Amino acid sequence: MRFEQNMIAFGRRGLIAGAAVGLLSAPLPRARAAAVRTKAKIVVIGAGAAGLAAANRLADRLEGASITLLDRRREHLYQPGYTLIAAGLKPPSYVVSTTAEYLSEPVRWVEEQAAEIDPVAKTVVTEAGRRLAYDFLIVAPGLVLDYGAIEGMDVRRIGTGGMGSVYAGPEAAAATWRMMSAFADKGGVGLFLRPATEMKCAGAPLKYTFITDDVLRRRGNRAKAELNFFTPQRVLFSVPIVHEKVRMLFGERGVRVNYQHTLTRIDLDRRIATFRTAEGTRELGYDFINVVPPMKAPDVVRNSPLPWQSGPWAAEGWVDVDRHTMRHKRFPEVFAVGDVAGVPKGKTAASVKWQVPVAVDHLVADIAGTRSTETYNGYTSCPLITRIGRAMLVEFDYNDNLTPSFPGIIAPLEELWISWVMKEIALKPTYLAMLRGRA
Amino acid sequence: MKDLNPIVFWAVFQEMLGPWLWVVIAASVVATIAFVWVVIREGRLSSRRLVWSEVAGLAGGVAALLIMMAVTNSRFADLGGPIDWLLAVSIFALGFVGSIVGVYAFLSVFAMTRAPAKSEDG
Predict the structure, then answer these.
(1) What is the mean pLDDT of residues B73-83?
(2) What is the pTM of this model?
(3) With an 8 Å Cβ cutoff, are B78 and A390 in contact?
């Protein structure tokens, strides 16, 4: 999902088998000067991958600062693992841990949700009414899965009637596996899709299509199934060269591609999905569907002055940051990292891995009265699973350039076992090291 | 792309193996020291023990590959490009050499405890 990440920027020099994942990038050298002394008050909204990593990095680089982390949820979810749960390879517990185990001193965790951000007064108000003043704010609340935008959709029915949705959480991913596995036993019509909005790990819906194809083949039922992929765009992936590769692979695997199709309605009883197309609406029956909902910024951000003020990102509410520094364009003491950031690429853990050290370096430089030269180039990565046991290690930047960490060694558009091995055993440890601010 | 930082690798391996990282390191160090000590003490390699440890090495190499396949939900049919074969050979080699060193050291120390004054095949 890029952590899945998602979730990959390796050095060009070293190759250590099994550990060569994109998350292993080291955007900033860890050997650095002593901690900066300050009395600054810093609030971090959100204890997901980006928020935790930012809080822990700040704790490491500052001495005497007040760092407050705001998040009501006690569980921490390793989202790049959802695909593996939905492939029947991992249990839901594989992705669940607790926020508390990653917190380092002196980060103060307030178990409340941020309800209001006032970047003019420099305050955040929690749902319990607690008012927190800040000198610097890091906005990392993630995003909202907007299932309500699909008429007839009911998240409580994930795992029934042939309907799955990998994104909705670990249990939903497991329920999706049950639905997909039943589908793979008997065949039928399978529908796969992506939303019209910006989304987490745009490779995830593609991966799940490939995995379903593979499971069908392993059970000898591929000929009994028809797989269809729907995308609102004119491409399967935003990076043209990756789009072409996936198009070719879908062709080889017999996956029918439908461009300019947006899921707008689903009849869960009759198992009919309705798509908006350029020519009008189109209804299709299904035996299995993987619903990927539209995504938008959380209300606390959407209701603040922080989002883009015009364009498609204004409607979705993504924070208006400079794409190279993650600093807010109008409120310089505000940074946004992770899914909520309004940048063209990278709602993945791999992007977080690069964004967080850059944003933190700029924030620390502000405190120290210096200038940071660190920049984020849009790097993100996607171990694009093409079957269980093989993946393509796709890495790219804002300019849609491929940025392979091992040019000439691990080809980005080749289906390889080594790329799968990385996804399976190295990605999660790298992610956890990132959370602790150690990678 | 930035350079790889060894500290990052260390952090990742710590997350990957937890306390087992230290067990693996300790076992490797102990086996290597024991092997070197035995060879220096005896002044040569015992051909009989070497053959047995090589047999164990083959088993160790195969075991390393099978464990890797099981842990990663993979099959040998998943090996695709040359880098995959290089990885598989490396994993086999790691299991092979590790087993040889460990088994040779173990057999030697075992032989010494039984007949401290002379080597097994001397």
Answers:
(1) 95
(2) 0.90
(3) yes
| Residue A12 neighbours by CB under 8 Å, 6+ apart | A405, A406, A407, B1, B3
**What are A335's two structure tokens?**
């940074």
**Residues of A in Cβ contact (< 8 Å) with B80:** 390, 414-417
With CB atoms and an 8 Å threshold, state whether B16 touches A409.
Answer: no
Which tokens is A213 given?
Answer: 């194809």
When pLDDT is cut at 50, 70 and 90, the band that residue A2 belongs to is: very low
For A42-93, how does the pLDDT look when each residue is reduced to its tens digit (9 = 90+)? Answer: 999 999 999 999 999 999 999 999 999 999 999 999 999 999 999 999 999 9
Q: What's the token pair of residue A391?
A: 């993946």
C-beta of residue A59 within 8 angstroms of C-beta of residue A107: yes
Q: A326 near A359, Cβ under 8 Å?
A: yes
- Chain A residues with CB under 8 Å of B7 CB are 30-31, 438
Residues of A in contact with B90 (CB under 8 A): 17
Judged against a pLDDT cut of 80, whether residue A7 lies above it is answered with no
A contacts of B73 (beta carbons < 8 Å):
89, 388-389, 424
**Is any Cβ of chain A less than 8 angstroms from the Cβ of B37?**
no
Whether B20 has its CB under 8 Å from any CB of chain A: the answer is: no
| Chain B residue numbers touching A28 (CB-CB < 8 A) | 2
The whole-angstrom separation of Cα A291 and Cα A173 is 11
Instruction: List the beta bridge partners of residue A284.
Output: A273
A224: buried, middle or exposed (CB in 10 Å: 19+, 13-18, 0-12)?
A: middle
Give the DSSP H or E segment for A259: strand A255-259
Confidence of residue A211 (pLDDT cuts 50, 70, 90): very high
In this complex, is the C-beta atom of B79 within 8 Å of any C-beta atom belonging to chain A? yes
pLDDT in tens, A322-359: 999 999 999 999 999 999 999 998 799 999 999 999 99
A11 chain-B contacts, CB cut-off 8 A:
1-5
With beta carbons less than 8 A apart as the criterion, state whether A309 and A295 touch.
Answer: no
User: What are phi and psi for residue B101, nearest 5 degrees?
Assistant: -60, -50
Average model confidence (pLDDT) across chain B: 90
Q: Do B9 and A24 touch (CB under 8 A)?
A: yes
**Residue whose structure tokens are 């590959």:** B65
Per-position DSSP letters for chain B, written without gaps between them: -PPPPHHHHHHHHHHHHTTHHHHHHHHHHHHHHHHHHHHHHHSS--HHHHHHHHHHHHHHHHHHHHHHHHHTT--GGG--SHHHHHHHHHHHHHHHHHHHHHHHHHHHHHHHHH-TTS-TT-
CA A124 to chain centroid, in Å, comes to 25
CB contact under 8 A, B71 and A425: yes
Among B2, B16, B88, select the one facing A429 at the smallest CB separation: B16
Give the CA distances from residue A274 to residues A155, A284, A288, in Å, rounded to whole numbers and listed in that order: 17, 6, 14
SS (H, E, C) A278-318: CCEEEEEECCEEECCCCEECCHHHHCCCCECCCCHHHHHCC
- The ranges assigned to domains in chain B are 6-114
Task: Select from A418, A428, A434 the residue whose CB has the most chain B CBs within 10 Å, as the one to mutate to test that interface.
Answer: A418
Query: What is the rounded CA–CA span in Å between residue A189 and residue A325?
Result: 45
